[in-house]
Amino acid sequence: MVIFNDMGKSLIVQKYGGSSVANTDRIKNVANRIASYRKKGHSVVVVVSALGDTTDELLELAGRITDKPSDRELDMLISTGEQVSVALLAMALHRIGIDAISLTGPQVGIITDRTHTKAKILKISADRIRLELKKGRVVIVAGFQGMNADQEITTLGRGGSDLTAVAVATTLNAGMCEIYTDVEGVYTADPRVVKDAKKLSVISYEEMLELASLGAQVMQARSMEVAKKYSVPLHIRSSFTDKEGTIISKEVKAMEEVLVSGVTANKGEAKVTICDVPDRPGIAAVIFKDISKADINVDMIIQNISRKGHTDLSFTVPMAELNKTKDVMNKIVRGVKAKGVVYNNEIAKVSIVGVGMKTHSGVAAKMFQALASKKINIDMISTSEIKISCVINKKYADGAVRVLHKAFNLGK
Amino acid sequence: MVIFNDMGKSLIVQKYGGSSVANTDRIKNVANRIASYRKKGHSVVVVVSALGDTTDELLELAGRITDKPSDRELDMLISTGEQVSVALLAMALHRIGIDAISLTGPQVGIITDRTHTKAKILKISADRIRLELKKGRVVIVAGFQGMNADQEITTLGRGGSDLTAVAVATTLNAGMCEIYTDVEGVYTADPRVVKDAKKLSVISYEEMLELASLGAQVMQARSMEVAKKYSVPLHIRSSFTDKEGTIISKEVKAMEEVLVSGVTANKGEAKVTICDVPDRPGIAAVIFKDISKADINVDMIIQNISRKGHTDLSFTVPMAELNKTKDVMNKIVRGVKAKGVVYNNEIAKVSIVGVGMKTHSGVAAKMFQALASKKINIDMISTSEIKISCVINKKYADGAVRVLHKAFNLGK
Fold it and tell me: What is the CATH number of the domain that holds A112?
């Protein structure tokens, strides 16, 4: 999988999450791992998150000052977390005789737009990284942060360090971008729920994107999309073992038998149902315009068959946005003259994902049958080319994952 | 004392030390104090240190990684402390409706030389500060830090935040530079030792310089020297009360009676005596060349009268540098063919300081007599135009301060 870049040696970008650098011992471990790559002749650029819970601790400090900190000052505050990590990792590398230098996002030249706390990367002028690599140094980049055109410090939002790693790997045309985390890779199902869940050795960007957005929580969808767009080969693996993890790339070997790659359950959503909406053209547009204005992330949307000119309309939102949703819904319900609105946060979304299902019929039927065999009622269904999701009662979520894992023979 | 600057309003620079911003409640207090200045129509630039013991905690983290962290990475690490403070203080000001913006040393344009951990400020391009002041904002500057010509983050060493404040005040031609600390000002003696020690309402740069270097620990000598050079009026005061502190300026009202402004004792030094050195020309130069090469800070130097072509040579060094000194001394003793070397860390240096003594004779005699009245033996003496210091046994230090305070009538 190693691609040789223009520096004549294979360049690897490694990203270490907060749990991989949670304390000084783990930082030393990371340094040893990096050293082993250097000894094999690789050039290495490392992207690091803040130590353990540092970001949350800083946010708590801010919370003790004010309920509504300005986004600009929040960025000033929380960007310090990654700056601490990079300095400590550089020291740990020096200690074992590896030449290394730490750089902040602004020093690297990660230029973002003017948004604070969830800035978008506009470009990376990686001259400084190239210069340091040429000196034979390991370059340690503070993840999650950048600088806008006014020299203001910005941060990239959730999963920002992954994004830094993928963007740096793209810019440098790296042979591989390794994402180190506290899991060993991507599994056919959550190993805590399904005993015989199997680690996937390889998976496509598309499948991983569905898994990420479905709550597999290995990597943010946003970074996956950038990786896919620029074909950056990713390797999701654990910083606590030397085992191979899961490679994510566009070239997945075609294995006819593999219909489904994995099963996931997302318990972090709530269902909102608007009852008895007068069913006239454009009514959904009216409803979702107001919801989108309130910056609420709607996932599944189901509209039932119209009865007597009225219909029920259901959708799911992240649990964290349920209160915000309720605020908006009261106004919407009055506006569209619906009978009322019902909320349900005892739901789970169970999904099967796999590129194989594109060309195979009967996958959906098999899924519904498996759930039926355990007497699990399906509340909502949505499908894409490579995914089928069913909303069910939350208490059956683990059972549903197990029966689906077995039905699609994923443990083998 | 308020001088009007070119912005048409009196500009005040305030510096808050670590104890003044040790926790979020204290940060809110500081915000209230700043707000009261804004309401009086002042423009305010605030320089802030790291919260409480943050810098020490960061150094401890580094210490768990390596014994010998690189200076560059240390700066990367410890400069985060002030960045946290400025962001939190900006939030605290926003909370009470005061427009404010935080800036890092690099964002301000504090340009230093290439030294790390004790960089020298080369210049401050304060355009950004001026711009923000014109918008009516309180500008909060991270103390202690700057940037060198290579965009590297540097720190200014001990007392660095004071230096930032004085340098910013100079650059902006501020009417006053207030140094907030946990003491109420400069006293005639340490109030913990001398009950009737009096707060001085005003003192000259020269006297304060002597007091700073003598261990009064209110402000670093380095910042005092810059303040003196550019005639920045300073006000040393407490962030915990509204009482006036001590003004430091060059215009001290001449009061003929005031010979002595204060008495201090420094217990942080050790005495080194080289015994029976062959007394030939240049011998002191040889000795102190090696000591200075080892970067040891020598204070008092006394050479006794030569007897039979041999002399004793004594000097004092900071206690913290005694071990380093011992390493060098063995070589020196052999080199100059001295008989041996004796160390004494049971000493204290008691000093009286005052511009008045320049023109009055008899001050030294009065000092010696006061010490003699308590049967305190004097071991070494050194004098300058505005200071007389005596080295005595450490156990008599507090008693010596008391008797001198009384002898020069400082409690009145």
Answer: 3.40.1160.10
